[in-house]
Every structure is written in C-alpha cells, then in structure tokens.
C-alpha cells in the first residue's frame, strides 16, 4: 500500500519492546502526518509479529541497507541496542532520511561528532529520544524558568533511583561499555539529567563519583555528581539501579519558588508542583499562573514525534539534535571522567586526544574492559 503523499514515510529499525510499544503508539497518535511503511529486524519471528501488530502495508526487511534502498523512507526510527545506533543513524542520514533514535544516540563524543559530520553532508537531521522534554509540564516549567518568572535558579536536585535485578543484566549487551556505553548514567538517569539541562541551560563544571556496588558488570551501577551551571546555580545528580523505592525526581529552587517534578517513567501536569517562597501568597496571580499550564500533554514518544514532524514541515533542525543533544552526552562523559579521575571536569575540555572522547570509561584501569588492558 503506497503512503499518502501528504504524510511522511516512516521506517522502524528494531522491533523489540520499545518499538512495538512506544514507537508504534506514537505513530498511531500521529497517523494523520506519518505513515509506517517498513520495518527492519534480523529476527524473522519478531519482525513478523511486529508486522501483524502494525497492520497491513508494512514491508519487512532483515537488512537496513536493503530497506533504505527499496522503501526510501523520509524518517527512520531506531530502537536497536545502543552499540548499533551510530552506524544505523549514519546510514539513514546518507540515504536522505531524518532520524529519531532511542537514547543514547551513540556511545561517545567521538561517535557523536561522526554523526554530526554525516548530518553536515546530508539533507536530514538526527534527533535523540528524550521524551520527558515534551510533556506540557516540562514545556511550561522551561518557559517560566528561562523567562525569569520564578526568579533566578539557585539550587537543584536530579534523582533517578531505580531498581534492576540480576535478571535484567542477563541480556548480553547490558552492563557492558562496548554495547551499552555505561551503566545507569547512560542508560537510565540520562533522561532526567537531560531534562535538568533542558530546564537550566549550559553546565560549566562537574565533580562526580561512581561505584559498582552490587552488580557484576563492567560499568557502574550507581553514580552521583555535583554540577555548577554557567549562571551560577548548583545541582546534585544521582543515577542508581539499586533503589527498591523507585522514583524519578527533579527539584529546582528559584528565588521566588520551588518547582518539583516527581514521577517514574513519564509525567503529566499533576506530576509538577510549585511552592512559592515565604511571603508570596498562594492566591497571588503569579502563583496561579505557575500552576496552570494551558494544556495537559503527557511526556511521551508521541509528543516528541509531533515536535519532530513540526520541524520537518518547516524544514528546520528538530529539537533534541545538534549541539543541544551533544551537551547531554558531554555531561555524561564529564561525569565519568570526573568519577574515574577524581578531579573536576569543565565543559569543553573533553576533545580529540582525551581518552574520554572515544569511550566513557576513558581506558581507566579500574573500569575499562579487561580485554582492552
């Protein structure tokens, strides 16, 4: 079945749980603007099950290059394990497609810069999925903070305290630097600290620690960092897969109010609270406006896909791409470098020639895979 000329032709790469669930739901929510035409997976049974779930008209392929040559999609959604993201993203860009890829977009700053170079030589853009930015509560909070309506940001806390058991790490690519890129810093907490950076802007300095306290894996199972932002605010970030009472939380104390987000895997407007400073009454018109976003849009893949489609229609760089997305990956690299080196790391210092530019473990003898030592 040919795609409607008024809708983008979309292909998915990987047909595991995240694609079958979140991506397929997002495409259905945006079905007036996007049409799924193809899917790629090396597992024939999984691919067939996905095609049945997706409905008629979705061609199946076992090879990405064959799909790109045959289907010629406008947009490629990538939901494969992280070690495949760089190669698959570059291939899609070279074919002329735009890309929306699951986090992390790649495993190092060096890989990110390869993708940026491919973008420069192609008509499309590559975005990374950070869906928590796109709920109406996050959009509202960012507008208030960046516009100064809450006063200067001063102190912040960012918490991703989740729980993953040993069975979780039985999946061969998890917990390994070469295939996952890191532990909860890269694979779990990255959603929350991306949102923190989205709300507060550029960071200038990181001091961090990391540990391998429970799980027998290459990467960390907990990390913690102190951050200084360019405008002077200071924050803590905790990333854990050791926490039985699971929660995702961001709290930002501004001069006139505290804004707090508490959720687990997604948020709505009622996940956000605004507490005015002492002396500012609850019925003050400013406080009422803080607590009432114009709409209630949950954070989701559908919300981010909608923002990307808006950018595609305007022919402009989509959110979550370019230097904006690189900043989040650079923060992760800086956290690892600070944790493993025991010293502060400043924005911009991890450049070609720095071991943390090419891998998150930085070839540190206590953390690099044994076969590399």
UniProtKB/TrEMBL annotation:
<dbReference type="GO" id="GO:0000166">
    <property type="term" value="F:nucleotide binding"/>
</dbReference>
<dbReference type="InterPro" id="IPR036291">
    <property type="entry name" value="NAD(P)-bd_dom_sf"/>
</dbReference>
<dbReference type="InterPro" id="IPR000683">
    <property type="entry name" value="Gfo/Idh/MocA-like_OxRdtase_N"/>
</dbReference>
<dbReference type="InterPro" id="IPR052515">
    <property type="entry name" value="Gfo/Idh/MocA_Oxidoreductase"/>
</dbReference>
<dbReference type="Pfam" id="PF22725">
    <property type="entry name" value="GFO_IDH_MocA_C3"/>
</dbReference>
<feature type="region of interest" description="Disordered">
    <location>
        <begin position="353"/>
        <end position="373"/>
    </location>
</feature>
<feature type="compositionally biased region" description="Basic and acidic residues">
    <location>
        <begin position="361"/>
        <end position="373"/>
    </location>
</feature>
<feature type="domain" description="GFO/IDH/MocA-like oxidoreductase">
    <location>
        <begin position="140"/>
        <end position="259"/>
    </location>
</feature>
<dbReference type="InterPro" id="IPR055170">
    <property type="entry name" value="GFO_IDH_MocA-like_dom"/>
</dbReference>
<feature type="domain" description="Gfo/Idh/MocA-like oxidoreductase N-terminal">
    <location>
        <begin position="8"/>
        <end position="122"/>
    </location>
</feature>
<protein>
    <submittedName>
        <fullName>Gfo/Idh/MocA family oxidoreductase</fullName>
    </submittedName>
</protein>
<dbReference type="Pfam" id="PF01408">
    <property type="entry name" value="GFO_IDH_MocA"/>
</dbReference>
């Amino acid at each position: 079945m040919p795609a409607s000329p008024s809708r983008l032709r979309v292909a998915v790469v990987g047909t595991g749980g995240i694609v079958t669930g979140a991506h397929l739901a997002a495409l259905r929510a945006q079905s007036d603007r996007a049409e799924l035409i193809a899917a790629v997976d090396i597992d024939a049974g999984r691919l067939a099950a996905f095609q049945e779930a997706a409905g008629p008209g979705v061609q199946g392929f076992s090879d990405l290059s064959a799909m790109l040559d045959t289907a010629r999609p406008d947009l490629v959604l990538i939901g494969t394990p992280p070690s495949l993201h760089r190669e698959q993203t570059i291939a899609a860009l070279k074919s002329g497609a735009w890309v929306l890829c699951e986090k992390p977009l790649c495993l190092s700053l060096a890989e990110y810069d390869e993708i940026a170079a491919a973008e420069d030589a192609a008509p499309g853009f590559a975005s990374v999925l950070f869906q928590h930015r796109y709920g109406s509560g996050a959009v509202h909070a960012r507008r208030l903070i960046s516009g100064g309506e809450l006063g200067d940001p001063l102190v912040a806390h960012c918490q991703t305290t989740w729980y993953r058991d040993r069975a979780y790490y039985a999946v061969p690519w998890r917990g390994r630097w070469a295939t996952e890129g890191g532990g909860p810093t890269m694979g779990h907490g990255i959603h929350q600290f991306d949102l923190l950076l989205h709300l507060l802007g550029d960071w200038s300095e990181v001091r961090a620690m990391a540990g391998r306290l429970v799980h027998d894996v290459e990467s960390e199972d907990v990390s913690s960092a102190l951050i200084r932002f360019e405008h002077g605010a200071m924050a803590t970030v905790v990333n854990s897969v050791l926490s039985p009472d699971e929660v995702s939380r961001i709290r930002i104390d501004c001069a006139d109010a505290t804004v707090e987000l508490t959720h687990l895997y997604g948020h709505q407007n009622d996940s956000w609270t605004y507490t005015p400073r002492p002396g500012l009454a609850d019925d003050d018109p400013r406080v009422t406006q803080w607590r009432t976003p114009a709409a209630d849009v949950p954070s989701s893949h559908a919300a981010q896909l909608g923002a990307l489609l808006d950018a595609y229609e305007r022919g402009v760089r989509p959110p979550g791409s370019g230097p904006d997305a690189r900043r989040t990956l650079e923060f992760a690299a800086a956290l690892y470098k600070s944790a493993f080196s025991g010293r502060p790391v400043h924005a911009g210092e991890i450049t070609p020639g720095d071991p943390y530019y090419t891998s998150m473990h930085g070839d540190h003898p206590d953390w690099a895979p044994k076969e590399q030592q």
